[in-house]
Structures are given as structure tokens and as C-alpha cells.
Amino acid sequence: MTQSDDVDPDLPSQDKAKEFYAKYEPKEVLGKGVSSTVRRCVEKTSGTEYAVKIIDISGEKGEEHQVEQLRRDTSREINILRMCAGHPHIIELHDVFETPTFIFLVFELCKKGELFDYLTEVVSMSEKRTRIIMTQLLDAVEYIHSKNIVHRDLKPENILLDDNLNVKLSDFGFATVLAPAEELSELCGTPGYLAPEVLAVSMYDNVPGYGKEVDMWACGVIMYTLLCGSPPFWHRKQMMMLRAIMQGNYHFNSPEWDDITEPPKELISKLLVVNPSQRFTAKETLAHPFFKREFVPIKKFHARRTFRAAILCTRFFFRLRHFYENPPPISLDVVTTNPYSVKLFRKLIDGCAFGMYGHWVKKGDNQNRAALFEHSLRDDWKNDVKL
Ligand code: ADP
Ligand code: MG
Questions:
Q1: Which of 151, 183, 184 lies closest to 169 in space, CA to CA?
Q2: The CATH number of 18-108 is which of 3.20.20.70, 3.30.70.1450, 1.10.10.10, 3.30.200.20?
Q3: What percent of the chain has pLDDT over 70?
């Protein structure tokens, strides 16, 4: 039985997707969404591994208008993915198949999975690792924004990692292309990452719509979460969380933030700005000192403390050398009563014992070591040694 024949009911039958099955062998599930399942698959001719997102448009899981909407959203997702093709930090769409009941999107495979899982494993990231991840993410965000694309669902679950832990921005399911001066008003995304203006537009009348800045807010939430391991806006009660977002109410709590330097904190405070027009753009964010290569966290220099530590180190090494060159004298009492306690004698005694009894230990035969404790002499020594 191949894995394509397994019992998973989500896997479309062979006759419903002949073209896909002719080229690819589907394997295990990598992730699941509301109306899609992502599986690893192997291209039959080349043996190359990919990830296939299988979207169910059969209508069995929803009303006709919902299915129509899903079909339109998927075609928008495909268009956007094609607009972004070739960027090193955006997931590559390799192939597309469409049948009346399923759409198959074949992507490059990100073997290391979601940044979310990686973060769960490591709990939080160093400033250096955060800098690498955020540079790559912002590079992708700057690129899509230059094409007037808004992602609208930036979060660690949608940031995938390849074999070398390089970022691949994925899941363009909510992404859209902005027309000039267009403002959006749809409420979409994931609660903890929603920008205040997205909430405002769905809560109040007569407020302006939102634009690309929502992605920069999400970048601020992601960067905060990477550095300390927990999100900036979180509350058991979702209403309280949404209120904190609307007010931009977050803190660099102790002790998680105690050892983190000022530049990343300062940068986060430029991203988690309630007013979108004052929020940093992707370009401004990448130009921040946190991302400068030559940036070295500045630690306060204490001349007296450093001098004292240097003296202590020097004294320690001088003492160590003195003891090495002048070992303490061994007393006659110790030599006569307990010579085995002195390393020098111990080596000598063991050497002599092995010379006398070592021939019982066959090379490579550890079980015969017990023979070491027998009390008869080597045959060729019997005549020379008198006990
Ligand atoms: P949804 O719109 O349902 O969230 P995604 O495109 O985000 O769909 O895919 C769902 C999950 O499938 C991802 O969070 C990830 O775990 C996995 N996945 C998606 N694409 C890939 C890929 N190219 N390589 C590895 N895993 C992937
Ligand atoms: Mg997703």
C-alpha cells in the first residue's frame, strides 16, 4: 500500500485529480487549514520533494457562495504568488492543478516547518538570531509592499524555514493588491497580530480604512515574541486583549527583557505605534541601528572593575604555574604508610603490577581482566624474582 492510498478522507481520489497523480506522489500531512490540507509530495520524474496545498472546492464543506468565494480567493492567492516569484524569502509556487472539486498548489518544500514550531522548541531567540530572521522577513515584506501587496496574516505560523533556517514567507490566502489610494475595511487576520486600525474600522463608523501598515504592526508583534518568547498583547479574555491592542498597551516585562539591549526595544516601539501614519515602514525598519552589521551592543565600561579583574587573572595564572613547577614535598610518613595516595608512586606501583601480571590480559578481551588479581607470577619471572 502506498501512502497515497492511505485512509485519510481528505486525500482526493485518483479519478478526481488524474493530472496531479500522474506527476506527483502525495505523502504525509504537513499542516491543515479550514479548507485546505498541506502534504509533502514527490515529483515522480525527478524525485524532488515539494509541499502540496490541496484546497477542497467540492462544496461538501460549505454553501455554494462560500465555495465560490474560496475559488476566487485561491485564484487571487495564485496571482499574488506569481507576482512575487523569484524572491529568495517568499515561498515559490512550482505548479498548479485545478479540477472541479480540488485545487492543488505545489510549493517548494520547507523542511524545517513553521517559525512558530522552531520558536516553541527554542522558547526565545538571541538578538543575533532575531536580527537574521527579521532581516529576511522584512526583506520579503518590503518587496511585497513595493508591489502594493498587503499580506494581512503575518505570524510565525505563516513564516516557514528551509533546510538552512532561511525564512520563506507563505500563506498569501488573505493577501491583496491595493489599488492607488485604496483603503481596506475587511476584518481578517489572526487576533493577536491585528493592528489597531483593523479593529477600529470594524468597530466604529466614520474611521478611515487600513493599508500596508498593518503588516508592520504584525512585524512588531513577531519581533517582540521572538525575543522574549511570549506575545506583547495577550489576555485570557479576548476583549481585554483587543482593548490592549487598540491602546497600544504593552510592556517590556522583567525579567524576560532585562538582558535584552536597547536597540531592539527601541525598534519595537517604532513598530507598535497605534497611529499607522507614524509607524515605521519596512524600509525605515531595515535602516534602524539594530540591523546595522557593525552594531555591537554597548555595555558600560567600568575601568576600576576591569583593572581589578585583570590583576586577579594574572595572579591566578602565576600561582598555577608556581604549583606546577614546585609541587609540595612528600613526607616520609606518607611514603612509608600510604605510598599509593601519591600520584607519582601510584603510577610506579601500577606499572610494576602490570609488568608482572599484564600478560594475563589478552588484548581486546576485557572479560579476562579478573585475571589481573590472580596471585601467581609470569613463568619467565619465576626464577628471577624472590618474594
Ligand atoms: P492555511 O491558509 O490553511 O493556513 P498555509 O498555506 O498556511 O494554509 O499552510 C498550512 C500549514 O501547512 C503551514 O502552517 C505549514 O505548517 C504547512 N505548510 C504549508 N506550506 C508548506 C511548505 N511549503 N513546506 C512545509 N510546510 C508547509
Ligand atoms: Mg496559514
A1: 151
A2: 3.30.200.20
A3: 86
